[in-house]
Amino acid sequence: MMTYARAARWAAVTLVAIGLLVPTAVAADAKDREHRSRGPSVIALPDGFQPEGIAIDHRGRDRGTAYFGSLANGDIYAADLRTGRGEVISQGPGTASVGLKSDDQGLLYVSGGEAGTARVVDVRSGEVLRSYPLTTNPSFVNDVVLTPSAAWFTDSQQAQLYRVPLADRGRPAPARSVRTVPLSGDWVQVSGFNANGIAVSPDGRSLLVVQSATGLLFRVDPRTGEARTVDLGGTLLPNGDGLLVEGRTLYAVQNRLNQVAVIRLDGAGRSGRLVKTLTSSDFDVPTTIAAYGDSLWLPNARFGAVPTPETFTAVRIARP
Known about the structure:
Blueprint: H1 4-18, H2 25-32, E1 42-45, E2 51-56, E3 65-70, E4 76-80, E5 86-90, E6 100-102, E7 107-111, E8 117-122, E9 128-133, E10 141-146, E11 150-155, E12 160-165, E13 179-182, E14 184-185, E15 195-200, E16 207-211, E17 216-220, E18 226-229, E19 240-246, E20 249-254, E21 259-265, E22 272-278, E23 290-292, E24 295-299, E25 312-318
Parallel strand pairs: 14-18
Antiparallel strand pairs: 1-25, 2-3, 3-4, 4-5, 6-7, 7-8, 8-9, 10-11, 11-12, 12-13, 15-16, 16-17, 17-18, 19-20, 20-21, 21-22, 23-24, 24-25
């Protein structure tokens, strides 16, 4: 007879096998949250940088380092959230860096936007360890989420996701291991931006994907690509961009609306309800979101703005 403890271990092994157990970064962040955030509430990024993605390091001496990707040329900028100081750590390829996520080995997984690519960057050396040509069709590889075994990328111009296996002992997977997963079920591709932000459902079994143009949120089976609309009780997420799931709370950035929707999900991520909307006078088209300590950090992309000089910032707001 299988005991409860053995059953729990078996379930965990099963979820790791398909790559959708909640990432270990959640546990690391719980430890970070014991300490109140200190330092600036607004960090200046390089002039003309045009940030989009953000990832925050939770490892050892790099804990509290935020990484930002540039839409302008793909540079990666690292900033200390406690001091606001930073520098470019990796020169871009001349094409965009969009969504970012960092793993526990010091590797950064980067979405390549219109280039249709993804790449893996070593945050210590700035070296690009691997580039992945995900598609040759018109595309915008937008956001990325990490599970224990894979990085999942969205494409805002094609109805498909890309699965890239995570690096093993710091060695990125070969390009031949990349898998394209077409979206089906309730998913209907429309004009404009489609699949954008991506996160893992609270139960770790599915992927949550927001469709920017319609404001719909979908629960996607990673094995088949079958998408089912998440019942949010009539709430839509227009201009939906970066997503962050903590426990059963979903934070959904709505970029041009300058706000973050806070949604309480059920355990499986099949339904939820809007509980709060966060905003800040410092928001200027925020795009993506990451948590550190008792704060949420968002880069301001300033879409459509013609600033003089071209100043860009990242903003800290309190977690509710």
